[in-house]
Amino acid sequence: MTARRAGPLTRIALAVALLLTAAPVYWMVVVASRTSAEAADVPPPLLPGGHFAENVRRLFANPDAHFARGLLNSVLVSGCVALGTVLLGSLAGFAFAKLRFRGRDALLLTVLATMMVPVQTGVVPLYLIMLRLHWQDGLQAVTVPFLVTGFGVFLMRQAARDVPDALIEAARVDGCTTLGVYRHVVLPVLRPAAGVLGLLTFAQTWNDFLWPLVVLSPDDPTVQLSLNNLATAYYNDYALMFAGASVAVLPPLALFAVLGPRIVRAVLSGAVKG
Amino acid sequence: MRRSTPYLLVAPFFLLFLAFGAFPLLFTLWMALHDWELGSGTRRWVGLGNFRYLATDADFWHAVVNTAGIFALSTVPQLLAALVLADLLDRRLRGAAALRVALAAPLVTATAAVALVFTQLFDSDHGLVNGLLGLVGVPPVDWQGGRLASWTALAAMVDWRWTGNNALIYLAALQAVPRELYEAAALDGASPARRFWTITVPLLRPTIVFTAVVSTVGGLQLFTEPTLFGAAGAHRMDGGAQHQFQTVTMYLFESAFGQDRYGYGAAVAWALFLLIVTFALLNALVLRRRTGGAR
């Protein structure tokens, strides 16, 4: 099997795709490091300027954005949701892949079915539930309901199937409990897939917008709501907004820079869909 | 192993899903059968009243057309571009791994941040897009004001996020295609374009259907991009002065959380759910036909 060689046309087309992908992010950095007036210059500035630190200072000092608070909240919420999803997803995934119990296949099908439910359908009563629990305006409202997903369970179950049964048998003979098997035999095998799941969940939670907008208050926001605060009140101050956008995209992108190659390999091997 | 252990391990997922997934879904239906206001505490049974109102609610249908329009404008070019991109990526190339990672990165880039950037790029007076169009002699476009123009700007945001990701999903499927098929077709004198349509597309059919369904579920719930696109307006959930880019989810949000018509908002939510299911099935059926056997 020999792969086709990439000709000059292919290279040009791929370069264009890369350029289109990078351009908006590059433009964000250019504007974030200049003054707002420069963003509208003709011809437009093409290189980053020297105002980034000043814009970031204005960002954190802005009374309406609550940016520092938003950043901290997002780190807490996304971290908890990612950890919860990996932990609860891997426990359930292990059970579905390696333990025999009555109703297993039907339950697994249910897990798959939940992945197809559009989340927004339940958003109105979910808000009433939060009111009833007195969770509105609190971080638990954007954390607890999302601590594990069908996608997480399924992904972990696919990965746990790679654990050799003989290894599990041997651990049991040595006196391991089921949780012991999970910790000492299954978890090490799951680690790469768990990293992928953790990052994807972190990024998804970090980037979530609709539900935080419904249930949180603008002065105790997530970082996306901080951006929203800026966009409503300071929509002409592009340097300020873009500085906010630059900071807001950084944590998931930085994680992606580290784990990205592994994720792409997982997608290409068919382990992750969508 | 104790008999209860497996059930304990899978229980957290099912408990969370029951409480925050399944129950709200069903409760939405119950709410939709009521006049339900939080401010006044009203909770009056109206039967199918909300749905009857919905059927003739011009604002709702306007939002449906907007949502479907943005969806079509974004998804068709997106999936086509992703197919071509996957075909291009399926070749020997130095730096291919890094390129793939870069093309997948938009997926983890905050939607709200990207929406802010694109909103500025599509600014009618100072935006780069109009600036570039001006260079080739195209007069400035009012990206916010026009219906089709605003849909196009929103479609660009959606496509920026998803095209690379879908290309990778196609690439995964493509790598399972036997190389000999391409070699044989090339020997028979088939042009690259012909090989693309007669080999790549039919073999990727299940994957194409999968991505189309996923795009449908996501695309019809479009919210973040149009909300930030209209953030400068007085009533941002309107999606422009003439509601030209108000999506169904924005209308849902406005009905329930903006106007305290929770019962009606619930009815809109169920209508959206049905819309998604219908569209997803339709797309799957049409694509199954269209991408069928070799031509």
Automatic annotation (TrEMBL), chain B:
The biological processes this protein is annotated with in GO are:
transmembrane transport
- Fetch the CDD domains from UniProt: TM_PBP2 (cd06261)
Q: Which PROSITE patterns match?
A: ABC_TM1
Q: What kind of membrane protein is this, topologically? A: Multi-pass membrane protein
| InterPro entries named in the record | ABC_transporter_permease, MetI-like, MetI-like_sf
- UniProt keywords, alphabetically: Cell membrane, Membrane, Transmembrane, Transmembrane helix, Transport
Say which domain of life the source belongs to: Bacteria
Q: Which residues form the ABC transmembrane type-1 domain?
A: 64-285
- Record's GO cellular component, any one? plasma membrane
Q: Where in the cell is it found?
A: Cell membrane
* Positions of transmembrane segments: 7-33, 60-85, 97-122, 262-287
Keyword Transmembrane helix attributed: yes
PANTHER family listed in its UniProt record: ABC TRANSPORTER PERMEASE PROTEIN, INNER MEMBRANE ABC TRANSPORTER PERMEASE PROTEIN YCJO
- Similarity-based family: Belongs to the binding-protein-dependent transport system permease family.
Q: What is this protein called?
A: ABC transporter permease subunit
* Upper classification of the organism: Bacteria, Bacillati, Actinomycetota, Actinomycetes, Streptosporangiales
